[in-house]
Task: inverse folding
């Protein structure tokens, strides 16, 4: 698409990227690419601490907080708890 067509599509909310598996449409190709992981089952982002895998890097970053909190509790002498910390 030309820049003009792309700008017009963005302003009108046109969804021009379609999933070949389920026909869901997206405004951005990056959103379609991320969506396709739901069909392939691929989880490209892995935790270096426990090898758990995630589809989105945001979820990996959030997960990594659990390891950081565990290390902080261990270094402060607090007992290790399997439940999440109170909010």
Result:
């Amino acid at each position: 698409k030309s820049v003009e067509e792309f700008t017009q599509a963005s302003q009108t909310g046109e969804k021009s990227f379609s999933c070949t598996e389920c026909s869901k449409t997206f405004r951005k190709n990056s959103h379609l690419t991320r969506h396709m992981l739901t069909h392939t089952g691929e989880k490209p982002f892995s935790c270096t601490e426990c090898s758990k895998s995630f589809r989105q890097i945001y979820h990996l970053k959030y997960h990594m907080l659990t390891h950081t909190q565990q290390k902080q509790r261990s270094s402060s002498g607090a007992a290790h708890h399997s439940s999440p910390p109170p909010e």
